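Fold it.
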Amino acid sequence: MPILLALSVVVGIVIGTFYAKHFSGNRLNIINSGSNRLNNLLRIIDDQYVDTVNIDDLVEKAMPEILAELDPHSVYISSRDVQQATDDLRGSFSGVGIEFIIREDTVRVQNVITDGPAERSGILAGDKIVSIDGKPFVGPEVTNEEAMHRLKGPKGSKVQIGVTRYGSKEEKLFTVTRDDIITHSVSAAYMLDETTGYLKIKSFGETTYEEMLVGLAQLSTDGMEQLVIDLRDNSGGYMLSAVQIADEFLPARRMIVYTEGRKSPREDYPSSGRGSYQHLPLVVLINETSASAAEIFAGAIQDNDRGTVIGRRSFGKGLVQKPIEFPDGSMIRLTIARYYTPSGRCIQKPYTLGKDRNYEEDLLLRYEHGEFFSQDSIKQSGPAYHTQLGRTVYGGGGIMPDIFVAEDTTAITSYYKEAAMRGLILQFAFEYTDANRQKLKGYDELSSLLGYLKSQNLTEQFATYGEKHGLKRRNLMIQKSHSLLEKYLVSRVVYNMLNEEAWLKYLNSDDPAVEKALDVFRRKASFPQKEEQGDKGPTALRGAITLPLQRHLVADRSWA
């Protein structure tokens, strides 16, 4: 027995030593792995750093930096910003029902939702918000994000809003009960002429498909025989929304899009053949800020030779993000796959891992290289693919339209650029609207409002206003940019007094991309034909595109 006990002890020591070394090695490996090093670093800082550190704040700042080392579209969204990040795509939110802009560190009510909480409480378009819940809200702290954070809230909750009105310094207080506010991603549906419908889709959200069906039903009632879908400045949204909409126009068993990633097996999205508009002549308008889901739709139409794509090369976002929520309410949108158009092309433009300055400045670089003005300046380095009819299309950098429309800069001067970039035109238009709101209310139709505004010589009024605000008067440049300035100014007043559809009607009245679409329909050429020998790709149309920056101007307003 003593011998057996001694042997057992020796064997136990040997086995224990072996496993201790084995597991110790693994433990060191685990500790030295990236994720555990981060955890250990935070623990060490919390335990030993010379000053008190808020670890939560440190993590909040580190998360975006970590994701920034991946692709350009993997992002972290704090719990404070999650609601705002998802509201636009959900089609509704709970708030007070105003559209606002920020001018001179002050929130200014641009529009109020008809029969919404703010209107029911007595708030009017033109009011300046100076306090919220008894606390002043003016100055540098006034940002879009902070205004929306304070004005939005749970349905049924109350917020006290203090405003001042034009011509008065007296503060008026209104108690507003928040309610559900409906937002629309289809901002216009009207007839361009007796047979041509026009549909503007701003984004692809949860309600976009239903909104589109309502718009198309109305256009059909109005006599629509052909359709223009405007996706210019549409930055995307939900992929499935784009798939649903494309399905309405494609015959059965046509690929709409497919996705594939390292950990995401290929998933196909074919058409069902149940769409109500499979044979409707179709034109799709895109430009350099049409991205993601907008490119999925345009690519599906182009690769299936279902319609004609007109405009300029799209943004080039071909990555699929998955939202992943954390217990504290924050979330990340992590890229998990790439999407591919029916021909097999990925239209994601090139990028390098980490912070890629060239990627961030891509649109500026396109502008500087002349891509907005000349089709010959466009260089797509991706491989060639072929549509159903054998037409050549390219991957690796956005959707190249079938018909290219160049931007005309003949009326742009340094005076116009400075006026636009400093925000003086927007500011003048708002102040002009505010000062003349009662008179302008008498013109509730687009045609009558345009007739009045064009008799007011707004360009001359703006030149005087600009001079008072540090914009040196340059008569020759003003004369050269007169038509551009007038259209810009008139359009903003139209937007302030009427609505987005009226604004688009005015802009589209002489838009060369829209005019080209109408020409395509007149020639019955909306359905692409097989390439003839010697075809060199997209045709080009040179002419005055809508005002530079003009269609982006609604981006300065927000809803709450």
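The longest helix spans residues 2-32.
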